Amino acid sequence: MIGDEDAAAPATAAAEFAILDGAGVKRRGRRPSHDGRWTKVTVVLLDRQIVFLDRLVADIRASSGGSIGRAHLIRALIDALAESDIDLTNYHTERDLKNILATRLARGSST
Fold it and tell me: Which of 35, 66, 92, 104 has the most beta carbons within 10 angstroms of its beta carbon?
Protein backbone atom coordinates (compact mmCIF):
# COMPACT_ATOMS: atom_id res chain seq x y z
CA MET A 1 0.00 0.00 0.00
CA ILE A 2 1.34 3.44 -0.89
CA GLY A 3 2.33 5.46 2.16
CA ASP A 4 2.03 2.49 4.55
CA GLU A 5 4.33 3.40 7.44
CA ASP A 6 4.43 -0.20 8.68
CA ALA A 7 5.67 -1.62 5.38
CA ALA A 8 9.06 -3.27 5.40
CA ALA A 9 11.70 -0.75 4.37
CA PRO A 10 15.41 -0.17 4.80
CA ALA A 11 16.69 1.15 8.11
CA THR A 12 16.71 4.89 8.58
CA ALA A 13 19.70 6.74 7.24
CA ALA A 14 20.69 7.90 10.73
CA ALA A 15 20.83 4.31 11.95
CA GLU A 16 22.85 3.29 8.91
CA PHE A 17 25.34 6.07 9.54
CA ALA A 18 25.61 5.16 13.23
CA ILE A 19 26.35 1.53 12.43
CA LEU A 20 28.87 2.29 9.73
CA ASP A 21 30.56 5.09 11.64
CA GLY A 22 30.73 2.97 14.80
CA ALA A 23 32.46 0.25 12.83
CA GLY A 24 35.03 2.74 11.59
CA VAL A 25 33.84 2.59 7.99
CA LYS A 26 33.83 5.94 6.22
CA ARG A 27 30.53 6.62 4.49
CA ARG A 28 30.41 8.89 1.44
CA GLY A 29 28.02 11.80 1.30
CA ARG A 30 26.19 13.89 3.85
CA ARG A 31 23.70 12.90 6.47
CA PRO A 32 20.18 13.10 5.05
CA SER A 33 18.10 16.12 6.03
CA HIS A 34 14.94 14.07 6.55
CA ASP A 35 13.54 11.67 9.11
CA GLY A 36 11.85 8.38 8.51
CA ARG A 37 12.61 5.33 6.49
CA TRP A 38 14.00 5.89 3.05
CA THR A 39 15.15 4.06 -0.03
CA LYS A 40 17.53 5.43 -2.61
CA VAL A 41 16.04 5.14 -6.10
CA THR A 42 17.01 6.09 -9.60
CA VAL A 43 14.57 8.18 -11.61
CA VAL A 44 15.17 9.13 -15.21
CA LEU A 45 14.51 12.80 -15.92
CA LEU A 46 14.88 14.72 -19.14
CA ASP A 47 17.72 17.23 -19.44
CA ARG A 48 15.25 20.13 -19.56
CA GLN A 49 13.71 18.92 -16.28
CA ILE A 50 17.12 18.82 -14.59
CA VAL A 51 17.88 22.33 -15.86
CA PHE A 52 14.53 23.53 -14.48
CA LEU A 53 15.11 21.90 -11.08
CA ASP A 54 18.66 23.23 -10.84
CA ARG A 55 17.57 26.78 -11.71
CA LEU A 56 14.68 26.63 -9.27
CA VAL A 57 16.75 25.39 -6.33
CA ALA A 58 19.43 27.99 -7.16
CA ASP A 59 16.75 30.72 -7.11
CA ILE A 60 15.37 29.40 -3.81
CA ARG A 61 18.85 29.36 -2.27
CA ALA A 62 19.58 32.88 -3.54
CA SER A 63 16.33 34.36 -2.24
CA SER A 64 16.04 32.51 1.07
CA GLY A 65 19.59 31.50 1.91
CA GLY A 66 18.22 28.04 2.65
CA SER A 67 19.95 24.82 1.78
CA ILE A 68 17.73 22.96 -0.66
CA GLY A 69 18.44 20.51 -3.44
CA ARG A 70 16.66 18.65 -6.20
CA ALA A 71 15.70 15.78 -3.93
CA HIS A 72 14.13 18.16 -1.38
CA LEU A 73 11.98 19.70 -4.09
CA ILE A 74 10.95 16.35 -5.56
CA ARG A 75 10.05 14.94 -2.12
CA ALA A 76 8.01 18.08 -1.31
CA LEU A 77 6.09 17.77 -4.59
CA ILE A 78 5.33 14.11 -3.96
CA ASP A 79 4.21 14.78 -0.38
CA ALA A 80 2.00 17.68 -1.52
CA LEU A 81 0.40 15.47 -4.16
CA ALA A 82 -0.13 12.69 -1.62
CA GLU A 83 -1.85 15.13 0.75
CA SER A 84 -4.00 16.69 -1.98
CA ASP A 85 -7.47 15.69 -3.08
CA ILE A 86 -6.36 15.21 -6.68
CA ASP A 87 -7.48 11.84 -8.04
CA LEU A 88 -5.11 10.76 -10.79
CA THR A 89 -6.46 7.24 -11.23
CA ASN A 90 -8.39 8.09 -14.42
CA TYR A 91 -5.41 9.52 -16.29
CA HIS A 92 -3.40 7.19 -18.47
CA THR A 93 -0.54 9.16 -20.01
CA GLU A 94 2.20 11.43 -18.76
CA ARG A 95 0.70 14.24 -20.85
CA ASP A 96 -2.72 13.76 -19.19
CA LEU A 97 -1.10 13.81 -15.74
CA LYS A 98 0.89 16.94 -16.58
CA ASN A 99 -2.22 18.74 -17.86
CA ILE A 100 -4.39 18.02 -14.82
CA LEU A 101 -1.59 18.87 -12.40
CA ALA A 102 -0.78 22.12 -14.23
CA THR A 103 -4.47 23.07 -14.21
CA ARG A 104 -4.84 22.37 -10.50
CA LEU A 105 -1.60 24.18 -9.62
CA ALA A 106 -2.63 27.23 -11.67
CA ARG A 107 -6.05 27.25 -10.00
CA GLY A 108 -4.44 26.99 -6.56
CA SER A 109 -2.00 29.83 -7.18
CA SER A 110 -4.76 32.27 -8.16
CA THR A 111 -6.53 32.03 -4.81
Answer: 104
